[in-house]
Structure formats: structure tokens, C-alpha cells
Design brief:
Blueprint (H helix, E strand, L loop, with lengths): L4 E3 L2 E3 L5 E2 L2 E2 L4 E2 L4 E2 L3 H18 L4 H17 L2 H11 L3 H24 L6 E3 L13 E7 L3 E4 L13 H9 L3 E4 L5 H17 L7 E4 L5 H8 L5 E5 L2 H12 L7 E4 L6 E3 L1 H20 L11 E5 L2 H15 L4 E2 L3 H15 L5 E5 L10 E2 L2 E6 H5 L12 E7 L2 H10 L3 E7 L2 H4 L3 H10 E6 L38 E7 L20 E3 L2 E3 L2
Parallel strand pairs: 7-24, 9-10, 9-12, 10-11, 12-13, 14-15, 14-21, 15-20, 19-20, 21-22
Antiparallel strand pairs: 1-2, 1-11, 3-6, 4-5, 7-8, 8-23, 16-18, 17-19, 24-25
Helix pairs in contact: 1-7, 2-4, 2-6, 3-4, 3-6, 4-5, 9-10
Length: 526
Amino acid sequence: MNTQNIIGYALIPPTGKSFRAMSPASDTELAGDFHVATTTDADAAMQLADKAFAVYRHTDAKTKAAFLRSIAEGITALGDELLNRCAAESGLPIPRLTGERGRTTGQLNMYANLLEEGSWVDAVIDTAIPDRTPLPRVDIRKMLVPVGPAVVFGASNFPMAFSVAGGDTVSALAAGCPVVVKAHPAHPGASALVAEVIMQAAQKHGLPDGVFSHLFDDGYAVGEALVKHPKTKIVTFTGSLKGGMALVKMARERDEPIPVFAEMGSTNPVILLPQALENRAEELAKTYSESVTMSAGQFCTNPGLLLAVKSEGLDRFKTALGAGIANVASATMLTAGICSNYQKLSKERLGNEAVNIVGKADKLNTENQNQALAVVSEISAADFLADDKFKEEVFGPYSMLIVADDMAQLEEVVGYLHGQLTATIMAEREELALYKPIIDKLSNLAGRVILNGPPTGVEVGNAMQHGGPFPATSDSRFTSVGTGAIKRFVRPVAWQNWDNDLLPDALKDENPLGIWRLFNNEWSRK
């Protein structure tokens, strides 16, 4: 395992400070001295990325696809070494991490397929009409092109799928943007293993030096230097609202403001409609006791709010949910800091006189450290509406049930919530038509609206939208999961009055790439 910073194809000799990863389960140091990058390293990485962009932006789709597939193969070849290191650094179980590895390699191959198909460039062609009256039409052709070097911040809760070779990195590389990754300090060993795979894959396919760099930092200096660097054209981040907004502020205050696509958390409200509760209260309770506690509640789609109207069905749901939560064993959280924050916030909520406990886990694992016990609390809709702090996310296995007096009050609560990644409605088919205003509000509130299913679990595909109105994300128009994520790293450019042989292949008359294009207002592959 290489513990040095990587700038292009160079391993940077250590110059000073280093740090070690901590095992959250044992609170002990793990092997490996990871060398903290300097602001000089950040500058060198961005300068080299800018030089690489001049070449990489023109790299053909076949080569880029092969590059991404080689990364996937390299990650798979790391085998148990990567899984064991991820487990040691994150406290996450091997089965969960095995699935995450599959998601990571799967999205690399998915983007390779996207590149080979090619229509993602959104080619639009309006040919000239010289005899149009009263004015002739000139020839105009438009497509998406990469914006330039991207800075990617690794996330704490997905040491592979949202880290060094995660969705942000792969979508940027697919778009034609060189990437500089600022590794997350909670899992530097896993990051180092994957970073070396990417460097080797880039060399294998003859890509320009600087198409990928990887920097360690145990603080904020390197990240700040990368965001503020004049060669940086785009930033991606997954984490807290405080961290995301700090990056957004830095990017806006530059001489040349740049976009920061930040995913910053969500309470993912779930509406439990009356007939659904009446018919299947116990089934819904089982679904949500599992969803709230999955991976110690450390998913960005964890159902942090449950909304329902007083009823006999709700009483049955509460009884079953409380029993289900009580039977869940404690789980190791990602870091000591995350665990401490969870304990603090959940204790504050439960200490409020307006809050009652529906269910609380009591099976504490005393062999491991940084253990989180799941909690579901309850509050009246009136008390929830009276205090803004209850709208904020508690990151971990915590959920709050909001009990309304009637559907009008429940609808008021929905209208009071801020932007979300997901919103869910649990309902019988026949009652959906009765509550259309609530459904309309949910679609305005969230990026993904779910019917009769838990929000945890994100399908990585073409139709996925993982992003929502502020503060869930900094820009609700884009997704960070699925093939649509590539659109963050591109911008449209139009070519006017160019000779056919001088145009990009995607815009030439003969369509040498064979991609779908909007040609004179008709979709065609001809």
C-alpha cells in the first residue's frame, strides 16, 4: 500500500507531517503513515491537471471506456486486501462492503458503456436554410464538452462508491475532465489502494500525465487550496451542510466563481397514509425498523422523519416499530467524531419535553468502540412546527415520528419541510387520489419520490435522480448517482458556419460515431 501523495504519474517524497487511520471499532491506530500534502502539492496537481486537460478532452470514447474498465478490473483484483482495509477503517461489515465494491465497479463499467454508445453528448444540428424568409438560417450545431479539471472530495460513509474511484470521479473522467481527489482522512488506506489502481490504468492506456492525482490531508488546508486554485473548474462534495456550504462560499468568492456540487444531507420524510397503516401496520414497521438501522443509519437516504395521522393503525405501527428497534444490536459508526455527534444530537432531542420514545435499542456491543444505539422518537405535529431544529438531520440510526391531528395538519408539516434527496409515500392505491396535494408537495420537495418502499438503497442507472432542492444539495438540477451525473462536468458549445470536415465527429453530417442526434428537429442515428 502506497502512503505517498500521487501527482500524475509521480509519487511525491514525504516532506513532513503524516497521520494514521483509526479503527472506529477498536479506537486504535492502523498501519500506514500517510503523508499530508502541502499547498505546493495542490498547486502542482492542478497545474498538471490543466495541462492534461488540453489532451484528455480530445481522447476518444473507446480509449476512455477502456480506461474505466481497467480501473474496475484493478479494484476487483485487489480482492480481500481492499475489503479488509475498508472494514478496518470504516467499521462497516464485509458483506456491505462487498456490495459497495460491486456498485463501484458496476458504475465504472456503466460509464464505459455510456461512452461507447455516445449519445450523452446531446448533439443537436440545425442545418442552414439559405432561402428562408425574411432571413436565411445559418448552420448551427451544438454538443456538450468537458469544463476542465475537477476536484473531488471523498465521502466518509462510502469508502469506495463515493470515494477515490466513486461516482464523482468516474463521471468526471468519462466527461473528459482530469480529476484531483482529496482523500477522506477516515479511510486513507482504502483510498491509497484504489488511487494506485487508477494511476496504473491511466499509464496502461497512454493517458496524459496529470489526468489523475490523489492528495492526503488531515485538515482543511489542501482542500481549500484546491477549491481556490484558478485551474480548478468544478468541485464535488458529499458530507455535512456546514462543510458543503464552506466550499460553496469559497468557490463563489473566487475571481472566477465555479460550481460546487455538494450533497449535504437529508431527513427523507416518509408519509404513512391512513389506509396503508390500517391494512399493514406491522409490515410497515418491520420495513422501517430495518431501513432506519441499516449501516448504523449512515446512509444519506436514511428515513429520518415519519409522518402520520392519529389512528388505531398508527398505534399498532408504533408498537411494532418500537419492538423492532429494541431488537437491533448497536453498530459501529464510521468515526469517533461522527459517533460523538450522533450521541450529542440524539440526546438533545430525547431531552426535549415535547419528545417521547417509540423505541430504543438496548443491545450494546461492549467489545467494540463508537457504538450507536438506534432510536425512534415521537413528537406532535404542533410541537414539530414550533421548533426549526427538529427539521435538521441526525446522522445515524435515528428517526422521528411526527403525529398529526388530521390530514390538513400533516399537509402543513410537509409544506414546512426543506429540500430533500427523497420523499416517500406509503399508501394503498385507492387512497392516492384522495391526497394529491400532498403528493404534489412531495414532488416539489425532493429529487426522488418513492411509492411503497424504503428510501434506503439507490439504484445506479440511467433514470436515477440523487439530488434535491437546497439544503439537500447545492444544485437540484443534477444527480450524483447514475449516468446523469456526467452532466455536472460539461457545458454546451455551439459551432456556427463551420465546414463539415472541421467539426467534431459528433456533429458531422455523416455521423461517423453512429450516435442519436436531434437533426433538424428529428431524432436520428443517420
